[in-house]
Write a structure and sequence with these properties.
The protein is α+β, with helices and mostly antiparallel strands. The chain is about 50% helix and about 15% strand. The termini are far apart.
Length: about 1600
Amino acid sequence: MNDELTELLSAARKVAEAARPKEFEVDLGDFLSRFYEDVAPEDLVGKDPMDVVGPATHMLRLGANRPQGTAVVDVFTPTVAANEWTCGHTVVQVITDDMPFLLDSVVAAITEQGKALHLVAHPIFAVERDVAGALRAVLPGSPDEAPDSATRESWLHLEIDLDSDPASNAALEEVLLKVLRDVREAVEDWQRMTAQALELAEQLRVSPPVSVPEKYSEEAAEFLQWLGEGNFTFLGYRTYDLVRDPDPVALVSQPGTGLGLLRSDRVQSQSFSEMPPAVRAHATEPRVLVLTKANSRSTVHRPVPLDYVGVKRFDDEGVVIGEHRFIGLFTSSTYNQSVTQIPVLRRRVDELFELTGFPPTSHSGKDLLQFCETYPRDDFFQTDAEELFPIARSVLQIHQRRQTRLFTRHDRYGRYVSALVYLPRDRYNTHVRERIQNTLLKAYGGVSVDHSALLTESVLARLHIVVHMPRRTPIPEVDEGLLERELADAVRSWDDQLEQALMTSVGEEHAGGLLATFDGSFPEAYKEDATAREAVPDILNLEQLGESGISVALAQPAVVASLRDRRFTIYRAGPAVSLASVIPILNGFGVEVLDERPYRISGSDGVERHIYDFGLRLPDEEMPNEDTFTKRFSDAFLACWSMYADADRLNTLVTTGGLDWREVAAVRAWVEYARQIGSPFSAQYMIEVLVSHTEIVQLLVKLFEARHHPSEHDERKAKAIHQEILTALDSVASLDDDRVIRQLLGIVLAVLRTNYYQRVDGSPKQWLSFKIDPREVPGMPLPRPMFEIFVTSPQMSGVHLRFGRVARGGLRWSDRREDFRTEVLGLVKAQMVKNAVIVPVGSKGGFVVKNPPPMSNREAFMAEGIDCYKTFISGLLDLTDNLVQGAVVPPPDLHRRDGDDTYLVVAADKGTASFSDIANAKAQEYGFWLGDAFASGGSVGYDHKAMGITARGAWESVKRHFLEMGVDTQSEDFTVVGIGDMSGDVFGNGMLLSEHIGLVAAFDHRDIFLDPTPDPAVGFQERKRLFELSRSSWQDYNAELISAGGGVFSRSLKSVPISKQVRKVLGIEDGVKSMTPNDLLHAILQAPVDLLWNGGIGTYVRASSETDAEVGDKANDPIRVTGAQLRCKVVGEGGNLGLTQLGRIEAAENGVRLNTDAIDNSAGVDTSDHEVNIKILLDRIVQDGDLTVKQRNELLAAMTEDVADLVLANNYWQNMLLSNGRAQRGGLLPVHQRVMTVLEDRGLLDREIEFLPSDEQISERILEGRGLSSPELSVLLAWSKIALTDDLMATSVDTDGWALDALAEYFPPDLQARYGDRLGEHPLRKEIIVTMLANDIVNHGGITFVHRVVEETGASVEEIARAYVACRQIFDLDGVWEEIKSLDRVAPTAAQNALYLEFRRLLDRSVRWVLTTRGGVLDASKLIEDVHPVVHGLTPMVPQLLRGSEQQRLQDRAAEFTALGAPEPLALRAAGCLDQYSLLDIADIAKREKEDPETVAALYFAISERFGVDDLLTQISNLERADRWSALARAAVRQDLYAAQAGLTVRVLRRTDASLTPEQRIDEFEQANPEGLTRASATLNEIRVSGPPSLATVSVALRVLRNVSQQGS
């Protein structure tokens, strides 16, 4: 530090050189060194050199002129602006002649003004001045070595507390100038005053007064001699005359006798004149010395009362005629010398020994001498032995006993009371002293006190207190016995009182244990604020907490400023409570915090304890249920503190609304839910409304309780309260307030279940759950789920939306706290579409973490998220029925206002990908019947990434799109850009599904991968390597394998170099040399490649009509493109929400091939659904003891690929359906429109929400010949399945014999083989059957199939389903569809579509035939049994059975299929589909007429050829079907034609010889009916050549045939 100081002073000297004064000589380097010579280095180090130079140079300027005998004082606050230096304090600078007492006196004066010192510099310089005091030189070196002509001066620089008030500084200057004058006067006259004292001593020896015993005169002389020998600092002297006439007696000063502080003449002694007459009489007593204290305090040396030494003057007769008065201070030697060596005092000691009779060498004598030695010396001088004797005797009698004693002595002049207080030494401290002082001040009415203390090895401490009385006020009479007892109380420690209070309260034994912990643990601040008796309940509260915990107490003090005032106390065992966390909680209750007093209690057991005492003032509003307020308030605070309740203004309802915290929590939940469903009012406004209408809030709570209390629910009471609320609302003046309350009322009425009354270990749960019927909530946004569960706590909030009783979907960790339900609602709409392929309908959940740790602390962040996820799961399970041994078991402590509801499954989603085991553990904790089937994808389940199932499902879409372009992705190279990296499930698996992928670019949130001319084989192997790493990023890609111009670049770079190869492959303009990462990603998304594969998270494509804000994915705003900007040929949506629906539609309209994410990535949810349903079945078998858990898990694993096959089949057939739909979408648009209208009328579909075209838009498309785009068809496909599933659930189709076959098809073959007999026991048996059937009907019949059949036949969905099942099996369509499927990569998709659509026509017509001929309740199994053998046997024979033109037509049609690429056998069968349809009539006729089916078939087709039925059917097919009625008419005519042909066949069978050939039998029939048949032939020929067909001509032909069939009857 010395080095630093040296460096600082060196720098300061350089600065000072520029400020060298010209008026006088000074060596600034020497001056600075000596200026700071006595200053501690730490006071200077760190200062700016200018701040070191400034004080010195300022003082030089101050000392430039100082007239002789004067002092120069400056008090100022330096600033850089005014002085160019600063020190942060006010500065006092003094220059005066060097003399004693200067520094002591100045410091004392400053301290007396309440200022603290921060730095003191007191150099002494030798200076030369001229006669006027002008400074000529500051001499270098020591002043002791200066010439005699030089003047020694004290230069004082002091830094004190900052004071910027100029008036205050000026006042301090005046005080200091007076003090300096006093010091000068005292110092100048000191020798004269000393000489005067010595002269008086000599006079007393030579001429002692005759009225005074000689020994006293001699003693006085010795005393004065002793004073003059350095034992007294003389500060003032004056001679007084005693004047007796006129009365009263007065002391009058002799002019010119004053010295020192008494230089100034005063005619009369003011202090003497103010004394009472009895006191003034002492002035005439024949005593030489008067030793006492002056009324004033010293301004010189020490700021204490002046010592007064009076020497009386006597005349020759010994009469007192005046006084020599000395004032000053006894020196330190006076207090260090033995009393036996000091004149006056040694005599008094001798007198005390005489009075006590103690021998000096005795023990008592030694104690007496010790008493005298330690007696307050100043007081000893003023006290006679007679006064001291009783005190000494009493003190000696104490004998080291622990007690409090008081001894007082009154000043003989009545100016003060001197009190000695003895007290136990261990009780002495500042607070005790202050209490003693205050007690004495109060007792005597004093104005001030001085004190000193004596602490020795004695058990007693001695406190000397001087109580100064007001002027002219006599000392009052005081009961000193009572005063001593008061002092004893003041001395008795708070801890003593606590011990007594504890023993009184809890008994000696318990008190002993408490004292062992708490004795001495309370801080002084607590003791000042609380009595020992008040501490007892505090201790008992702390004791109950143990080593950790918190409790509270609310009390109404006896003495308060307001009846609304309370004291609120927090007791804490454990870490300290932050007041910043407490105050907001208290403010939330609407109370005013008046004061706060925190105390730390340090017990002997090492437990950290705290007490926090708050002064509260309650609101002025009326407080209902005031008798329970204390408990409600305390409970509510603890609930907020422990995070069971939120701390907000709604807690005012505890104070002014009469609610408890749990009731407020329920109200808060309703408010929060109202905000989530889109209330236009802010939460704060809604809270203010509720706080303003507490009566209605109370009614809302009562209504809730009346509807939901587990044992006391009362519908009649609830209705009455409801009516009371409606009445109360009539008096609500504000329309907005009314709207707020009515919405909350609607929410309360919509609640079906709640966990509000459920308890854990007797306490409410930390979260609240409400199951709600959204259809009953006013203002609920569309679409409205069937059910939703809202879960909330101070840590989290979440919502779970279900569109059916059996529903599934993921739970998302959302970051949208303000509108997470809006996010979930958007997701569940997509989930509904996606779930169309599986058993459950769509559901979705999402939760937010309200108080997340910073993301930088990943571990804490995840832990908080998992805790909130567990709470969310618990909240859902709290309200869900269980299945135990097949019986429904409702949750405990819950009143159900709905039916049984046992099915609840969840799945992973964004942020919860690894949480399935957590969810299953919670389900098992609840004993939930689904076990680990509750959340699919756990550690025992199907690992979607390992299976690659989501990517594989989406790849089915990719393959189909490419096949439609004539490209085989599995054998031909193609280019790809992608979103994701190889560590991801969907992206990583997807990019390994073909070895012909040329991945030219990809990106994730970290890096950008560019490989402009990739080698597909090399790239495949490297991607595979990355995928197999435990963790990887694009940075791990082997750079040596990347083609020229490519590389891996971090997205954190400012720019990325763009090579010519990259420009070419991404279609970037030639001039671009570099791009920002975001611009590059923008270009990648628009790359002219074959495939855009989305395997990431985020939305990257929107429509041109949409804004980025509407998309709701801010992170990707900078890179997002529009559908019109896409230049890829195909989009594969492995990830969710990669494109907005409008973005997809826009892309499709611009030639991009794509479906929707719900179609593409449905395999994941499908796999999860299979996992759940397989587990449900197997768990029942485990419970029955027929399978162990280990065996179950092994079987699950063994069936992995079988499950994948089942799932991928759904993906395949949906893509086949969409491919067919795209092929005929233009012609079917009117039907699609009618389907949408029906779905809307049923409340299932909202075209606006699903972005489907309006009727006006459809009319435009019809004129343009455009149908629905593939994304639109995808949506309509899903809703068709949803509607059909809903309809079938209301039927009994699951009870049909064939239904078990449908059920079995859902499960893997191994499971069917092992436990086929147990499949029917599945709890979701019907749901599985219905889902399988609905999927099958729509996948193979088409989106509009059921709708068209209903339109044309009026049949029910149940009848149609049975008819479909029958026809599918009758015509062996499963085998046909598999044959068509096998043409993948063998035949063009055009061939597949044509074949598929041809067999669909067969399906259409055959279903209608079944419905027409087998109306009512159809026995599909019986029909199959009757008809299938005939159809199966005759189908291969159809080509041979046909005749003439019909046979040629078959061959021509087969050639068309063959030309498209279909294999000949399948082409031939497809060509004969409509002929196969006729086999239904043929089988029916054969059975009815008991004829051989082959015979009937031969005749049937011969009649068709003879009468031109095939031509008529062609004409019917060519009829217009612009609207529904045209289509219905066409179908009716076709049906009539087939009926006429069947009738004619029957007639010919009956009327002709069976041994003849079919043609011969027709001839025979004609010959029997020549006229009618001739007319019929002519008419039919005329119709054939009449031109384009019309309904009229076809109707005539039909009538002709019908007539023919009736001839010969």
